[in-house]
TrEMBL record:
Localisation: Membrane
Membrane topology qualifier: Multi-pass membrane protein
Pfam families in the record: ABC2_membrane_3
TM stretches of this protein: 25-48, 175-201, 222-255, 261-286, 298-318, 338-371
UniProt KW keywords: Membrane, Transmembrane, Transmembrane helix
Protein name: ABC-2 type transport system permease protein
Protein's organism: Actinomycetospora cinnamomea
Length: 398
C-alpha cells in the first residue's frame, strides 16, 4: 500500500473517531460506567471499614464463659465485648433497649441466652464454640487430664505439606485481572463491532456510501471504519480499565506487582487484533442488508458464536485455567483475543502457546480481512433485497 492509498483511510478513520467520541452516547455511557465504578468503590470501602461487633453480658455461673467467648470471637471475625451483669433484670432491660446484644445466664455448658429477637449468626457460633470448650474442659478435668496440656499436644499435630510448585499468593488477583480483561475485551468487541455494522447499514440505506465510494475504494472505506471505531473502543477500554484498576487498588484487592504491566500490554495487543478480526466480519455482514431492521439477522450467527465461546471459556478459566479445553480454546483464532490475555495474566500460558496463538490469529485475521473486503466490495452498493453470501463472494466490482 502506498502513502497515497492510505491517506483516505486515515481521513475516514479520523472522521469515525471524532464522530463517536464527541457523540452523546459515548460520553454518557462512559460517565455512567465510571459513576458505577465509583459507587462500587464506596460500597467496598464502607464494607471494609465496617466492623462486626457485639456486646454481651454474663451473669451467675455463666461468667465462666467470659474467657472462652473472648477467645472464640476472633475465629468468627467478631469483635466481642463481654461484661458482667450483677443484676440480670437490668441486663434484660438493656437487651430490650438495644444496648446489649445478648444476656447469658445459668449453666455455662447449657446456658440461657436472652436476645431481642434472634441472635446474630456469628454471635451464636461464638457462644456454641465457647460452651463446647467449657464442656470439654470440665470432662477432661473430671478424668484427671489437663486441658492446656492436651491443647499443646494437638497444636503440634498436623501434616507437613510438600508442594511440587511454590504456592502463588497472588493467584486470586491474577484470576481477577484475567477475567476482567476477558470481559472488557468481549464487551468492547461486541459493542464497537456491532457499531461498525450499523454504520455500514446506515450509510448504505441513506445512499451516502455511493457518494463516498465515488472518491475512495471499498477496501479503504472498510479499513478506515475499522480503524476509527477500533480507536474509539480502545479509548473506552483504557478509560474503563484504568478506572477499574484504580478502584481495585483503592479497595486493597490489587497489588501493583500482580502481573499488572504484562496483563495491560497483552490486553491492548490482543484487543487491536481481535477488533480488526470481528469488526471486519461485522462490517461484511452489515453490507449484506440495506435496512437497520435486518441488521440483527445477519449479526446473530456471529454474536451467538462469540457469546457461547465466551461463556464456555469464562467457566473454564475459573475452574481449570491449565486444562486442555481452555488451552485449545485460547489457541483458536476467533477466541484467542478473549482468553489468551486472561491466561497470560494467570501465568499459565507458556511463551510457545502465546506465540502460536498470535501467529494463528494474525493469519486468520488477514484471511478475514481479505474475505470481508471482498464481501463488502460486492455488497455495499447493492440496495433493496438482502445480498446472498454466494453473490457477495463473487468477483469484486471495484
Amino acid at each position: 500500500m502506498t502513502p497515497a492509498a492510505l491517506r483516505p483511510v486515515a481521513l475516514i478513520a479520523r472522521r469515525e473517531f471524532a464522530a463517536k467520541v464527541k457523540g452523546r452516547a459515548f460520553v454518557v455511557g462512559t460517565l455512567v460506567v465510571l459513576v458505577l465504578l465509583g459507587v462500587y468503590a464506596a460500597v467496598i470501602a464502607t464494607i471494609a471499614s465496617g466492623e462486626d461487633t457485639a456486646r454481651v453480658a454474663v451473669s451467675g455461673p455463666a461468667t465462666a464463659l467470659t474467657g472462652p467467648l473472648e477467645r472464640a470471637a476472633p475465629t468468627e471475625g467478631l469483635t466481642l465485648t463481654v461484661v458482667a451483669a450483677p443484676d440480670p433484670a437490668a441486663a434484660e432491660a438493656a437487651v430490650r433497649a438495644g444496648d446489649l446484644d445478648a444476656l447469658i445466664t445459668g449453666d455455662p455448658v447449657r446456658p440461657r441466652v436472652f436476645v431481642q429477637s434472634e441472635p446474630d449468626a456469628d454471635l451464636e457460633r461464638v457462644i456454641v464454640d465457647a460452651t463446647s470448650v467449657v464442656a470439654r474442659d470440665a470432662y477432661l478435668q473430671g478424668r484427671g487430664v489437663d486441658p492446656a496440656a492436651l491443647d499443646a499436644v494437638v497444636a503440634e499435630a498436623g501434616p507437613a505439606v510438600v508442594s511440587a510448585e511454590p504456592p502463588d499468593p497472588q493467584a486470586g488477583q491474577r484470576l481477577g485481572l484475567g477475567l476482567a480483561g476477558a470481559f472488557l475485551l468481549f464487551f468492547s468487541i461486541q459493542t464497537y463491532g456491532a457499531m461498525v455494522a450499523q454504520g455500514v447499514v446506515e450509510e448504505k440505506s441513506s445512499r451516502v456510501v455511493e457518494i463516498v465510494l465515488s472518491s475512495v475504494r471499498p477496501w479503504q472505506l472498510l479499513l478506515g471504519k475499522v480503524l476509527g471505531l477500533g480507536a474509539v473502543g480502545l479509548l473506552q477500554l483504557v478509560v474503563l480499565g484504568g478506572a477499574g484498576l484504580a478502584v481495585a487498588g483503592a479497595a486493597g484487592v490489587l497489588a501493583a506487582d500482580a502481573g499488572l504491566i504484562s496483563t495491560l500490554v497483552s490486553v491492548v495487543v490482543w484487543y487491536l487484533l481481535g477488533f480488526a478480526l470481528y469488526a471486519t466480519v461485522f462490517a461484511a455482514a452489515g453490507s449484506l442488508v440495506s435496512r437497520q431492521e435486518d441488521t440483527q439477522s445477519v449479526l446473530s450467527p456471529v454474536t451467538i458464536t462469540v457469546l457461547l465461546g465466551f461463556v464456555v471459556g469464562f467457566n473454564l478459566l475459573t475452574s481449570d485455567p491449565r486444562g486442555t479445553p481452555i488451552t485449545v480454546l485460547s489457541l483458536l483464532p476467533p477466541f484467542s483475543p478473549l482468553f489468551m490475555p486472561a491466561r497470560v495474566a494467570l501465568g499459565v500460558a507458556p511463551v510457545g502457546q502465546v506465540v502460536l496463538a498470535f501467529a494463528l490469529t494474525l493469519a486468520f485475521t488477514a484471511a478475514v480481512l481479505w474475505l470481508g473486503g471482498r464481501i463488502y466490495a460486492n455488497s455495499v452498493l447493492r440496495t433493496g433485497a438482502r445480498v446472498s453470501l454466494r453473490e457477495a463472494l463473487g468477483r469484486a466490482r471495484a
